[in-house]
Design brief:
The chain is built from 31 helices and 20 strands. The chain has about 850 residues and is an alpha/beta fold. Helix 5 crosses helix 14 and helix 20 runs parallel beside helix 21. It is elongated.
Length: about 850
Amino acid sequence: MQKETLEGIRREKWVELYRENNPAADRWAAGYGRIRHKPETQANVFRMADMLKARKEKGDGVPIFEMLHAADRLTSCAMWIAVHEVYSRKVYMDGRDLAQHDFKVSPEGHTGSVLNMIPAYAGYMTVNALTGITRSWIMGQGHAVSAIDTVNLLVGNMTPAHAGRYSVTDEGLTRYVQDFYSYRLGTDGRQESPLGSHVNVHTAGGMAEGGYLGVIDLQYVHMPLPGERLVAFLSDGAFEEQRGNDWDPRWWRAKDSGLVIPIMINNGRRIDQRTTLSQQGDVTWFAQHMKHHYYDPLIFDGRDPAAFAWAIFEIEFRLEAICAAIDRGRNGYPARLPYGIAVAPKGAGFYNEGTNLAHNLPLGTSPHADPEAAQLFNTHARQLWVPPGEIMAAISKYQHHDQSGRVRERDNSIASRKVKLEDVPPLVSKAVPVDRRDMSTWPRYSAMYAVDEMFLAMAKANPHLRPRIGNPDEMRSNRMLNTLDALEFRVTAPEPGMPESIHGAVITALNEEVVACAALANKGGLNIIVTYEAFGTKMYGAVRQEIVFANHCKLAGCPREWISVPLVLTSHTWENSKNEQSHQDPSMSEAMMGEPSDVSRVLFVPDYNTASVVIQRLYQTHGQVWSLVVSKYNVPNLFTIEEATKLLDEGAIPVDWAGYERERQRLILTALGSYQLEQALMASARLAEREIPHTVVYMMEPGRFRKPRTDGERRQMAPAGVRAGLYPDSVPGRLFVTHTRPEPLLGHILPLYTDRTSALGFLNFGGTLTVPGLLFINRCTWAHVLDEAAQILDITRERLLEPEEIEAIEGRRGPEGLIIGAPEAPGGELVPAFR
């Protein structure tokens, strides 16, 4: 007889004896409706009960098997409501069959994932009650949100928006199912229903929409601080979405991380077919895969809320044992992280479970129009129904948070972050020249050095904040030298002589999403993401998820209070001139400008001093992502600290020492970007030489000059007086020289547009070039600025350019030594042949 068979027999005998000696356990073990407790689950739960008793843990004061008995009924009732939410316009708590007119004309929902998540979330609520600990939760498959909302409704764990509309009555539940995918707009022109297709601001305890599958898989390990516990519900479909979601043992540390409890819902299907995991083999194959990646997999019944409660308890128990072993020096890294795998068919508990139809609408047709479908619904929903008296008794077991002194799940610690600095370090700065008109005196520094110095100073001044630096590669190349030396790469086996440490704060992998998620998830700490600008687009989905959720929270009147996160886009489009067009792409800053400007702030940082001011101010704000385009090469340091502060306060400032006869100006020349500013100033010098009245403006934050779409953007706008002073109506001639492509910039600053406005920027021309060469082929040099200015001013180009310069920009003469410096110019610096 095989060993597994013998163990199974012994387990079943032990379970049988346990039930005989414990009537409450026997009562629970009988199951309820579609919920059955397998012998293995019973054995695990009985061991958990014995451990809780041995520890003298009373949780919220409800005996364990009474709690589990209630969990079965809570789960079944939530599943019953969930299928009504998809198909029905009415809910009758007496469980009567629905008539055809009770059904929705157009049903909608993610039924399968919801039915799989209900026992998971009910198990989470149950283990919290059993242990008297409110854990945080996050869900990668955000489309299963009605599982969360429905259980929360039943137990009264709701946000005000839900509590004001829903209750456990026929009327309250009917309104609940009618609000689901109602698509109605309120009198304010916004979505009327607080229910969403995914997790939203009104989901009690929610932290992320979960619409980008796989992103939460990369984030959860970086979320809890020491002393916190996080249950992360993941999906097998999402597992194939992202590279890096099996790297958590690389990053988790007992010293600076809380307890993480990952649980994958393994239902074997995505929308149209089986998941890759199920095609590769059964769950045993996946468990072996996870073992190879330093996980300790626990496989359990994904239909049973008690199995989920046990899995959460067991994973924590194993992880606490790992922490204790590490403290005693008996365990190293990577630690084998426990990982739950909940196995159940898609849509378990209802008609067509385990099929493709289970994902969305398992009945196949609308019961409003099809009598057979209506009968199928009634038959299968009836198996989930819980009599009102039983469900109210079950709900009552979840109302004893005061007994253990814990907060409601909606108020869990990670979802309720309120993070503040204890100290703000002083600014670093460099001198600017006395006569800034004299280009030969311009001092040049890397603005990234200021970013590096200010971030490290901020981290040292606030040791209570866990630092995380998301870095795909080339941190030294990106000038984050001091930060790297002080905070070090996080590795499991440090290489001698390298800035590496087991407890390093720099999360590095050649996977932009992985490292960005490390910083975005660390909402209790201090964060920065630094990347090549062109590769920022690979972070876009993860970053946008944060912006979307933070914006929704702000619009709902509950802004997020985590410290804002900088996304530093350096080694950028123009200074990556030598690395072909794959490295020459301003799309990330353009995309971030399209997001809400009061949450997604995009700044084109011109110099060292301004970078210092920006970093200091950024960390004093909350709930925002600041995309900072910063040069790593040496660029002119032209703004004093006072001017840089005004630039940040107002979004743009006049370059007072440049221009010519401001009071008679005919042209406003605006630069966005450090290289663009230098070209604009060179053009300005020629305009002054030719006695063309004009002004020069540096615009750092174009989002403050847009046409506002929300009250938040309206409050973020530059003051009307500032806009009028920089761009008076009397001066329609306006030329913008931008780091980005010209068209997105012109769209964003639409209120400044006149019939004599133009822009120069990246035109999608690239190659293996010098910085001046890349500027030239994209028509962004000082000579091109002058050529465009002549058209705006309706004067001949010969008024501003010499004949040989015109030949160069027309492609009839080489530009080197005339418009741009020779290719061998040291460091690719701009060496204009400007006379």
